[in-house]
Amino acid sequence: MVHHLHIQKACVNDALFLLNVNIVVIILGIDPSLVSTGWGIISISDSMVNYIDSGVIKTVSKDSLVLKLGQISLMVEKLITNFNPFHIAMEEVFVNKNYSSSVTLIQARGAIMSVIGRYNIDFSEYAPNKIKKAIVGAGKAEKHQVQQMVKLLMHIKKAISKDESDALATAYTASVNHQIKII
Question: Which residues constitute the catalytic centre (predicted)?
Fold first, then answer.
């Protein structure tokens, strides 16, 4: 279900009275990577966070950098057109000792952000420790702890990868930390 505003109205003496408002907000969370970009879709309705779908965008290792970035941006665009998110949240980049892997991560984020910009979608980004704190309660939590809590919080019964759980955790962090403007 895409984000929408459902309003039931009653006409009494030519006046409209708002009886019921049910707002559903769709958030796309992204865990960027050049090899396996995790994505997760959640909805917020009546202060409840609900799991919708998740997956991983995998690139082919022998493909050129340009082809990999093109595939990532194309798949993110498909997610946007299929799920119509109101908000997109992504994990911030952190520069590690391996300079070349940091650069490729920055390039993957750039490809994703260019798609978000083309669609002019509300966007936020969060540091990994802030995401872990929102999900587990501790900024230094392990990936398997994040994965377990995501499944518990969102009542997910099926197996999900760590890339998916990181993306869902990012979307969840946006739902609790970012003031999403509906109007």
Answer: 31, 91, 163
Residues 91-136 pLDDT 10s: 998 777 777 778 888 999 999 999 999 999 999 999 999 999 999 8
- 178-181 long-range contacts, Cβ below 8 Å, gap at least 24? 178/87, 178/89, 178/124, 180/25, 180/27, 180/44, 180/86, 180/87, 180/122, 181/122
DSSP state at residue 99? H
Overall fold of domain 27-177: Nucleotidyltransferase; domain 5 (3.30.420)
pTM: 0.85
17: helix, strand or coil: strand
Place of tokens 């984000």: 3
Give me the half-sphere count of Cα atoms (radius 13 Å) on the Cβ side of residue 26.
Answer: 21
Output the known binding site for Mg(2+): 31, 91, 163
Is pLDDT above 50 for 18?
Answer: no
Asked if 104 and 65 touch (Cβ cutoff 8 Å), the reply is yes
Q: What residue numbers does the annotated binding site cover? A: 31, 91, 163
